[in-house]
Amino acid sequence: MTLSKHPATIALHAGYRSDPATGAVAVPIYATTAYEFKSADHAANLFALKEFGNIYTRIMNPTNDVLEKRMAALEGGVAALAVASGQSASALAIQNIARAGDNIVSSAELYGGTYNLFKNVLRDQGIEVRFADSADPESFRRLTDARTRAYYAETLPNPKIEVFPIAEVAAIGQSFGIPLIVDNTAAPLICRPFDHGAAICVYSITKWISGHGTGVGGLIIDSGTFDWARFPERQPALNNPDPSYHDAVWTEAVKSIGPVAYIIKARVTLLRDVGACLSPFNAFLALQGIETLPLRMKAHCENANVVAAFLKRHPAVERVVHPSLAQGVAKTRAETYLKGGYGGLIGFELKGGVEAGKDFINALKLVYHVANIGDARTLAIHPASTTHSQLSAQEQLSAGVTPGYVRLSIGIEHSDDILEDLSQALDVASKRKGSA
Ligand code: PLP
Question: Which one of 110, 111, 134 would you pick to mutate in the ligand 1 pocket, going by the greatest count of ligand atoms within 8 A of its CB?
């Protein structure tokens, strides 16, 4: 059967029909560490990459394989690699092509964990991360030198929640032989970074993909469109003999099976050696989530539009950030890159600062106060008193976290109930002197 072009169908069917052994329609959890080889030659061929098949669950597993195929199909890529978390997806995506002495250029607007990974961990490993201004695509060019191996950005970073200029930065990268890696965690289905020139997508599948706040996981997806072999000096990791895999030159070694050099290398060297593999149980949870992802994303986006409009009218609210309300360049980017919705993340600034922010959070009854996004339930957090409380006031401001800033991840409850809870919590917050 040819694969449908409709996400609603792909989400249910790509990569799997039924279990060959039992006919099971739901994807089984293959709870096995190893796989019996058919013969000594079969084993040798698998290890030599002459044949592809299961060896050991740290590097592949049939449940994870369905998840990888399904997400690659949904994203319009050629192949994917499931890993233990969103954090390991971004780390491995970069370590796959950058070594000590190399650098990458990244948007400065990043999830805090990724920022720490880049600013501290990768730096300690000798990979310098240079931070560019996402509002100015040319800043990526200015920070590029001969050792720049990748560009990195998030589609819809918070707290600013403005869409990244994917095509502009991807085009600059193309001219140098530099791939753009995009973390599309906050915009699955509504943004397709590969359509705009991104080479690699990473996801925390912990969020909207799994969708129910049940398991941590990550994915790296290869577009298959980046021509690594054209840039041998810029991309040595994929073009020079790899001593960790009997001197394989990745752009040559797997040519016969398609444009998958990047993702195969990540699997058979980095995942093999670092071991940040996804549990098949969490892959199963993600697959359950993906079946309803198109429906859920629609509901998240519709509810978020309603909530953003409500907050904008509310007297206790100073300012609201959501792509549906963007103006100027941010609006043009939102319209260019987002299709079918503006995402579920909303930020807003309460009059009354830190104390109003805390009062608001404490008054919530339906909405959960958690450090997470992308759950089916509506979630809220007050960054100044939690996730960003270790930063100085100045650092908080430069990260876009003002004292009364609240971040919402809008769920799929009935919008009337979300509004009712927000409304009563805003009333409590605005009772504080000087708030409204
Ligand atoms: N990327 C983004 C945009 C995130 O929001 C997060 C976590 O919140 C991550 C990556 C890290 O994902 P995980 O928690 O699955 O490691």
Answer: 111
Ligand 1 atom nearest 206 alpha carbon: 15
Q: Whose CA is nearest to atom 12 of ligand 1?
A: 86
Q: What is the largest CA-CA distance in the chain?
A: 78
* Claim to verify: residue 178 and residue 273 sit in the same structural domain: yes
Q: Is the CB of 114 under 6 A from ligand 1?
A: yes
Domain shared by 100 and 194, yes or no? yes
What pTM was estimated for this model as a whole?
Answer: 0.97
CATH code for the domain in which residue 197 is found: 3.40.640.10
* 91 CA to centre of ligand 1 in angstroms: 12
Q: Could you give the number of structural domains in the chain?
A: 2
Q: What is the pLDDT along the chain (436 residues), one digit of tens a residue?
A: 567 899 999 999 999 999 999 999 999 999 999 999 999 999 999 998 889 999 999 999 999 999 999 999 999 999 999 999 999 999 999 999 999 999 999 999 999 899 999 999 999 999 999 999 999 999 999 999 999 999 999 999 988 899 999 999 999 999 999 999 999 999 999 999 999 999 999 999 999 999 999 999 999 999 999 999 999 999 999 999 999 999 999 999 999 999 999 999 999 999 999 999 999 999 999 999 999 999 999 999 999 999 999 999 999 999 999 999 999 999 999 999 999 999 999 999 999 888 999 999 999 999 999 999 999 999 999 988 888 887 788 877 877 788 899 999 999 999 999 999 999 999 999 987 555 4
- Whether 105 and 130 have beta carbons less than 8 Å apart is answered as yes
Are 276 and 300 in the same domain? no
Whole domain around residue 92: which residue ranges? 7-289
> Domain boundary residue among 240, 258, 289?
289
Pair (255, 317) in one structural domain? no
Which residue's alpha carbon is at the smallest distance from atom 11 of ligand 1? 86
Structural domain includes residue 436: no
Shared-domain flag, residues 283 and 424: no
Contact 158 CB / ligand 1 (< 6 Å):
no
107 in contact with ligand 1, CB cutoff 6 A:
no
Is residue 2 one of the residues assigned to a domain?
no
